[in-house]
Amino acid sequence: MISETGHFALILALGTAIVQTILPLWGYYRRDHTLMRVAMPSSVAQCMLLLVAFGALTVAYVTSDFSVENVWQNSHSAKPMLYKISGVWGNHEGSMLLWVLILAAFGASVALFGGNLPRDLRTCVLSVQGSVGAAFLLFIVATSNPFLRLDPIPLDGKGLNPILQDPALAFHPPFLYAGYVGFSLAFSFAIAALITGRIDAAWARWVRPWTLAAWMCLTLGVAMGSWWAYYELGWGGWWFWDPVENASFMPWLAGTALLHSASVMEKRDALKVWTLLLAILTFSLSLMGTFLVRSGVLTSVHAFAVDPARGIFILGIMTFFVGGALALFASRAKLLRQGGIFAPISREGSLVLNNLLLTTACAAVFIGTLYPLALEAVTGDKISVGPPYFDATFGPLMIPLLLVLPLGPFLAWKRGDILGALQRLAFAAALALLATLAAAAIFARGPWLATLGIGLGVWLIAGAISEIAFRIKLLRAPAEESWRRLCNLPRSAFGTAIAHAGVGVMVLGIIGTTAWRHEEILAMKPGEKADVAGYTLEFGGVAPGRGPNYTEVIGVFKVTRAGVETVTLHPSKRLYTAPPQPTSEAGILASWGGDLYTVLGDELEGGAFSVRIYFHPLVRLIWIGAIFMFLGGLMSLMDRRLRVGAPKRARKAPAGAAAAE
Amino acid sequence: MTRKQRRGVLIGVCLAVLGVAVGLVLLALDDSIVFFYSPSDVAEKQIGPGQRFRLGGLVEEGTVKRGQGTFVEFAITDTAKSISVTYTGLLPDLFREGQGVITEGKLGSNGVFVADNVLAKHDENYMPPEVAESLKKQGVWRGNDKK
Questions:
Q1: Does residue A306 register a pLDDT over 80?
Q2: Which of B55, B73, B122, B133 to mutate to test binding with chain A, by most A CBs within 10 Å of its CB?
Q3: Which residues in B lie closer than 8 A to residue A381 (C-beta atoms)?
Q4: Residue A299: inside a domain, yes or no?
Q5: Contact A318/A287 with Cβ under 8 angstroms?
Q6: ipTM more than 0.90?
Q7: Which tens digit of pLDDT belongs to each residue from A232-260?
Q8: What is the overall mean pLDDT for chain A?
Q9: How far apart are CA B51 and CA B53, in angstroms?
Q10: Residues A578 and A468 in one domain
């Protein structure tokens, strides 16, 4: 019964989304306020209905209702509760349901909290948002219904792919989707601006918090995916330039560019057309990511079931929205007046450079990701574009961006003083130089490029701190004044500094683990010892173990450092019962200096086991950097100006006054 | 600076960055892409030693032999042709006889493929699409496309 309720709610949500798309837009063109007002209740209703549908599916999973085909395919009664719940979105149908739920939630929050938006803008935004929802709901109802029943009812389910049964992965999809789908609002705002033909600084002020929230979720989602790949897949890498990873990384790059260009538009009323285009492109990349991952064009852990009809359907949706949006952009963008001129060396100029490099890097990733697909479609040749391509293209485009990043916040709007900015960064530059020399002294064997990389990371962190120090006149004014200035500094200034420092932290992690990684692959018998990066590991044999839905063979490694026993690591090889599939669980000793990472391999002749031991210097900093970026975003989001800065219409102001804002 | 000059600087910088990017992309595509071949392709296209490529197919039953340390030897087949592969390192969890795998490396002068990477990932039903395709070509495809 509950599943039928969910199914029914899903179909009603589709109907509501269609109403939300058509009536308000029609009302907008006929200047009929009654019709326009439909947008608000219908978007809230759509969200509620989807919440019911999602709740129904969750109940089916929690109670292990195997009469629902989706539950039978992807769940098992012996699975721990966390993974029963995460199993809801651990499959194609459920994850699409989560996708539209988040989409509707974003729409509903504009309806509920967007009271200070001009009526025309809000109506059009909700209508566009509704149309995206309608398209994907149609997709779900037509090709991916999660509520199909089975007869006869199977005794137990087939289980969830064991490598997906992991805490980080339980929360990776919701965050990633909140990011992907959050950009839909930027898209809807852009289309609405094109429809109404009005766009100004206030527009950017409304769009920016939503984009920022989406960007934060995406940052965390991508980072979680990377962290999971690092410890769960047992390859010891943190980024593989896998097409599926790229699919989530491209919207992140474009979204980062969008955040920066929106700030130019908000403060200086410049770069309007570009910001609009970027908003469209960012969401288009999100749609493309959904297509690549969900269609089965790329085979990966994410392509749950390969069904050509689904791929073509999503391709159709993508073509419609991207093509439609770009056509609308081409025909209407010239109506938008350009404002705010600026010198090439200025805050605006630096943000243009930021956008240029980010979007070009995004394009390079795009080409590397899609070239194999295109080549196979045209010539039938099968190729893979691997990490060397991305290292050779993405890297060189990022380095100039990172080098000039600390300068940006020191340049004034309109016309900047680059010499002054450099002077103010002298301390940061000195620190960076010192760090480079120190790294060169410690790692005398090189590689020298990596020691420069360490300098770059320190330059970014010190540059971010310098900016705050400069703004509070640290050491140049009495301590009380600095303190007062620190207290009065807008939160967004801290946000920028924290996020930029996060980039530096991440660079340190990337350089450390890429340049100075140790890897040993050994055949070890019980009692044998191995030395890796100053640690001594003694293999104490294996012991059997069992968990709720798996049995395992646990390796025992006593780790000593400088003669002192520190810890015992337990990498294991698990065999899950449903589905019957082996996985490796790495045994990791984490520290600030780096991770000691062990993987137990197969049993070899004579009682030996193949063992992989890594030392990853500074690897934690990669994800700590991502957390910094997230916190920076959060700080910025809490800024008063973003919350109340948008011009508020007086409660009883006449309608004409609101439109004239 | 006039508005026109400013625009000129902007366009100049954009073109410069794009030019560099295009150059990098072309250069990188030229020497870092890796082709995928099945054992039949290797015989047909007469791929010589030293060229890096991906070799995919099924791990032939009864061919997996372990050697010294983590050295392992096996054959990859598309049922028409098969090629011996050697690899030193940890095999993926899902590696076993009869399983579809992709290996990456070079042919040695003795015709044995020396792999430095073996991929068999994700789940037990997973078949690398390239492998599935070449098996279909040989008419030995047993899987079903839909779940």
A1: no
A2: B122
A3: 35
A4: yes
A5: yes
A6: no
A7: 877 778 888 888 889 999 999 999 999 99
A8: 88
A9: 6
A10: no
Residue A654 within any structural domain of the chain = no
Assess B54–A contact: CB distance below 8 Å, yes or no: yes
Q: Compute the nearest-CA separation of A351 from chain B (Å).
A: 12
Residue position matching structure tokens 């992965």: A169
pTM here is: 0.91
Q: Which of A341, A367, A610 sits opposite B70 (nearest CB)?
A: A610
Confidence of residue A655 (pLDDT cuts 50, 70, 90): very low
Chain B hits for A528, Cβ within 8 Å = none
Q: What is the CATH number of domain B35-138?
A: 2.40.50.140
Lowest mean pLDDT among A203-217, A438-452, A571-585, A637-651: A637-651
Q: Is residue A639 part of a domain?
A: no
A40 in Cβ contact with A25 (< 8 Å): no
Cα gap A301→A231, rounded to integer Å: 16
**Count of structural domains within chain A:** 4
| Beta-carbon separation of B27 and A386 below 8 A | no
> Chain A within 8 Å of B7 (Cβ-Cβ)?
no
Average pLDDT in the A38-42 region?
94
Give A454's pLDDT tier (boundaries 50, 70, 90).
very high
Does A532 touch chain B if contact means CB atoms closer than 8 Å? no
Q: How far apart are CA A73 and CA A78, in angstroms?
A: 14
| A262 and A331 inside one domain | yes
Q: Please name the residue that has the structure tokens 């990349």.
A: A285
State which residues form the domain around A45: 1-165
Answer whether B98's CB lies under 8 Å from B124's CB.
no
* CATH number of the domain bearing residue A66: 1.20.120
Cβ-based neighbours of A183, under 8 Å, separated by 6 or more: A211, A214, A218, A251, A255, A258, A279, A282, A283, A286
Q: Do A286 and A324 belong together in one domain?
A: yes
| Residue ranges covered by each domain of chain B | 1-33, 35-138
Question: Which chain A residue has its CA at the smallest distance from B1's CA?
Answer: A343
Measured between CB atoms, does B4 come within 8 Å of chain A? no
Q: How many CB pairs under 8 A join A and B?
A: 129
